[in-house]
Specification:
78% helix, 0% strand, mainly alpha, disordered N terminus
């Protein structure tokens, strides 16, 4: 007797059995999550063997990063395949259901198993996923902050602290004394703090006013005994180094942003492929389960 009768109308007839079997779905998801964790630990152990504190005995950062990314993708696919296949094999036979509907249900069960396993793994390793997605943003913020403050303050400085620095800079500009040489030689701490505020302000503004540069040259000449020309050359050299540091920090931030973007897109693509693998594996497992049962019935 065929499983499905195309000429019989079943409008208004509803089966009392749900098309969704949570038991196989949960079982496959748990198996996939456990497999993923085991493989991730194995990969971490193998990866640690590639890193050494001794110079020349450790793999490069690029090699370790690429290897880790490939391993994460392989782990995700293997765990998805195992979970999906178990989901298809463990479900009960749907009697009186068309083969196309059976295929759809198996595929849907595999997808749900993959989704549940993904949620489980994300929950167990939430901090790792958060770091992965937010790493580029954090690196961008850190590098940008470092470029702005030229390494003189922490990247986590508050807006209030920044306002205090700006207020201090303008206060210094109002109270600059004419007896600079005597003051600079006797009050090192005050001179150092004032120079720091000038550099911070110029880094924030993107350029240093000529009057500040002249004042810095005078401070340097007073403290070091250099001629005005030599002091001016030293100030110009330091400012060039600051600009170079800002450029390098911006380049590092842009590199981190691109790396994080690429990682996020590849991760999303890997997850989509994992969902497809889990769905196909569930359909394969369900078909094999029905074929083996049909062969067993035919034998007897």
């Amino acid at each position: 007797m065929p499983l499905y009768q195309s000429g019989v109308s079943d409008v208004g007839v509803e089966s009392s059995t749900s098309a969704l079997s949570w038991g196989p779905v949960i079982g496959g998801a748990v198996a996939a999550a456990a497999t993923a964790l085991i493989l991730l630990l194995l990969g971490a152990g193998v990866g640690l063997t590639m890193v050494s504190p001794w110079a020349g005995e450790s793999a490069s950062f690029t090699t370790v990063s690429i290897t880790a990314a490939i391993w994460f993708v392989v782990v995700q696919w293997l765990a998805s395949a195992l979970g999906g296949y178990l989901t298809g094999r463990l479900r009960t036979k749907w009697a009186g259901v068309h083969t196309d509907e059976v295929f759809f249900r198996d595929t849907a069960h595999g997808f749900l198993s993959w989704a549940l396993a993904t949620v489980i793994v994300a929950g167990l390793a939430g901090s790792a996923f958060t770091s992965l997605v937010g790493g580029g943003i954090q690196a961008l913020a850190s590098a940008s902050s470092s470029a702005t403050i030229v390494g003189a303050t922490s990247a986590s400085s508050s807006d209030k602290a920044g306002a205090n620095v700006a207020a201090g800079y303008f206060t210094d500009a109002l109270l600059r004394r004419q007896d600079l040489r005597n003051r600079a030689q006797t009050d090192d701490a005050a001179a150092t703090a004032e120079v720091s505020r000038i550099l911070l302000n110029s880094a924030t503004a993107g350029s240093m006013p000529d009057e500040d540069k002249t004042y810095l040259s005078a401070v340097v000449a007073s403290r070091t005994g250099l001629t005005p020309e030599e002091a001016t050359a030293r100030v110009d050299a330091v400012l060039q180094r600051i600009d170079q540091a800002k450029i390098e920090a911006q380049e590092a931030a842009d590199k981190a942003r691109k790396s994080a973007s690429t990682t996020a897109m590849l991760g999303a693509l890997s997850l989509l492929v994992g969902a497809f693998i889990a769905s196909a594996a569930a359909a394969l497992g369900g078909r094999q389960r029905d074929d083996e049962e049909a062969a067993l019935i035919a034998k007897f």
